C-alpha cells in the first residue's frame, strides 16, 4: 500500500467515523428527547374504583412519586381488598414483603403514609373506618367540614371507636387530623409531598375536595366527586382550572384523576353532583382554553386523564365502563389520553 492511498483511505475512514459519530449523537439526542417526554413522574395503584354498590371496590387511590414506595391514599373507600388485588396483580413488585406477615396489612401499615379524604360519603371512607383497628398511626388530611364530619359522625364511639385525636373522648390517637385551608399548600407528613386543597361542588350545598399533589417540580391533581359548573351553578372547577393552567403550560402537571359516575344518557336532574363523559370533556375544554386559547386542541395533550368513580349499571346489563370509554373516545377533540382506573392495576404517568 503506497503512502498516498493509505492517507486517502484514512481520510475516508475519518469522515466515515465522523459520520457514524454524528448519527450516533443524533440518535442519542432523539432518545433523550423521547425519554424526557415519556418520563414517568407518578405511580398510582387504585385500591377501589367503582362509584357505588361494589363494597369491595370503592374509591381509593394510592399515589407516590415515581421511584418511591411511600404512598398517600386519596380517599379510602376500599383498602384491604384493594391491597390484596393489587399485590396479586404484581403492582407492588418493587416492595419486598416479609414472608411471615399478612401481606396486605403489611402494605397498609408500612407503605400507606397518609389519608387525604375528599368528602365524608361512606363510599370514600368505608375502608378507613373498617381497617382502623389494625392500621398503623398516620395523619388524615382534609378540609374542615370533611374532618368535622368524620369526627362527629364516624369516629364518635357510636358508629366506631374514636381512633383519632379530636371529637368525642377518649381519643385513641392512632390518626392525627390535619385541617387543610383552601388554596394553601402544606407538607404531607411522612412523605416528600405537598398538598393544596380546593373545594368542589358535589350537589346542592355539599362540598367535596380536589387535591393538588406536588413532588418537587411535578404535580398530580385528584378530584373527588364533583358536578360540572354548568349544572351545579358554581365556578369551583373554573377556579381550579385557573390555578392549575400555568402548571399545565409549563408541563409540570402530569395527570388528573376525574370522575365519570354516569354515562351521557343520564338525565341532568339525576346527576346528584356527578359528571358524565360529555361534562368531563366540556369542563376540560374550559381548562384547555385557559392553557392555550389559540390551540386548545393541543393544550392538554401531555396530560394523562385517569377516569374514576364509574357507577355500575344497576338496572340493565349494559356495561357502563365500556359505554363511558366509548363516549370519551368518540368526542375526544382535545387529544387527551384517558385511562379508566382498574382495581389493583398500577398506573404510571
Ligand atoms: Zn360522594
UniProtKB/TrEMBL annotation:
Single GO MF descriptor: 3',5'-cyclic-AMP phosphodiesterase activity
InterPro entries on file: Pdiesterase2 (IPR000396), RibonucZ/Hydroxyglut_hydro (IPR036866)
Keyword Hydrolase: yes
Record keywords: cAMP, Hydrolase
SUPFAM superfamilies, per the entry: Metallo-hydrolase/oxidoreductase
Pfam families associated with the record: PDEase_II
One BP annotation, GO: cAMP catabolic process
Gene3D superfamilies found in the cross-reference section: Ribonuclease Z/Hydroxyacylglutathione hydrolase-like
Family statement drawn from the similarity comment of this UniProt entry: Belongs to the cyclic nucleotide phosphodiesterase class-II family.
Protein name: Low-affinity cAMP phosphodiesterase
Source taxonomy: Bacteria, Pseudomonadati, Pseudomonadota, Gammaproteobacteria, Thiotrichales
Amino acid at each position: 500500500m503506497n503512502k498516498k492511498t493509505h492517507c486517502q483511505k484514512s481520510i475516508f475512514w475519518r469522515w466515515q467515523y465522523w459520520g457514524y459519530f454524528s448519527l450516533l449523537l443524533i440518535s442519542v439526542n432523539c432518545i433523550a428527547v423521547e425519554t424526557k417526554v415519556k418520563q414517568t413522574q407518578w405511580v398510582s395503584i387504585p385500591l377501589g374504583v367503582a362509584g357505588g354498590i361494589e363494597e369491595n371496590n370503592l374509591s381509593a387511590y394510592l399515589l407516590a412519586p415515581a421511584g418511591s414506595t411511600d404512598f398517600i391514599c386519596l380517599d379510602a373507600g376500599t383498602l384491604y381488598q384493594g391491597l390484596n388485588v393489587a399485590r396479586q396483580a404484581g403492582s407492588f413488585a418493587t416492595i419486598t414483603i416479609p414472608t411471615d406477615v399478612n401481606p396486605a396489612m403489611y402494605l397498609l401499615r408500612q407503605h400507606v403514609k397518609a389519608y387525604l379524604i375528599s368528602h365524608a360519603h361512606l363510599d370514600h371512607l368505608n375502608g378507613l373506618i373498617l381497617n382502623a383497628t389494625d392500621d398503623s398511626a398516620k395523619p388524615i388530611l382534609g378540609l374542615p367540614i370533611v374532618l368535622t364530619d368524620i369526627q362527629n359522625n364516624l369516629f364518635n364511639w357510636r358508629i366506631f371507636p374514636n381512633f383519632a385525636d379530636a371529637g368525642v373522648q377518649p381519643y385513641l390517637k392512632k390518626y392525627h387530623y390535619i385541617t387543610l385551608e383552601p388554596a394553601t399548600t402544606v407538607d404531607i407528613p411522612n412523605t416528600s409531598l405537598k398538598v393544596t386543597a380546593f373545594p368542589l361542588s358535589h350537589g346542592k350545598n355539599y362540598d367535596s375536595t380536589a387535591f393538588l399533589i406536588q413532588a418537587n417540580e411535578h404535580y398530580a391533581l385528584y378530584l373527588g366527586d364533583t358536578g360540572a359548573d354548568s349544572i351545579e351553578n358554581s365556578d369551583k372547577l373554573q377556579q381550579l382550572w385557573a390555578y392549575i393552567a400555568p402548571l399545565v403550560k409549563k408541563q409540570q402537571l402530569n395527570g388528573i384523576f376525574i370522575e365519570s359516575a354516569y354515562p351521557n344518557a343520564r338525565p341532568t336532574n339525576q346527576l346528584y353532583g356527578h359528571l358524565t363523559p360529555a361534562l368531563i370533556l366540556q369542563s376540560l375544554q374550559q381548562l384547555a382554553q385557559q392553557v392555550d386559547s389559540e390551540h386548545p386542541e393541543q393544550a392538554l395533550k401531555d396530560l394523562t386523564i385517569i377516569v374514576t368513580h364509574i357507577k355500575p349499571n344497576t338496572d340493565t346489563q349494559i356495561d357502563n365502563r365500556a359505554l363511558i370509554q366509548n363516549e370519551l373516545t368518540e368526542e375526544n377533540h382535545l387529544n387527551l389520553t384517558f385511562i379508566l382506573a382498574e382495581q389493583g392495576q398500577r398506573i404510571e404517568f
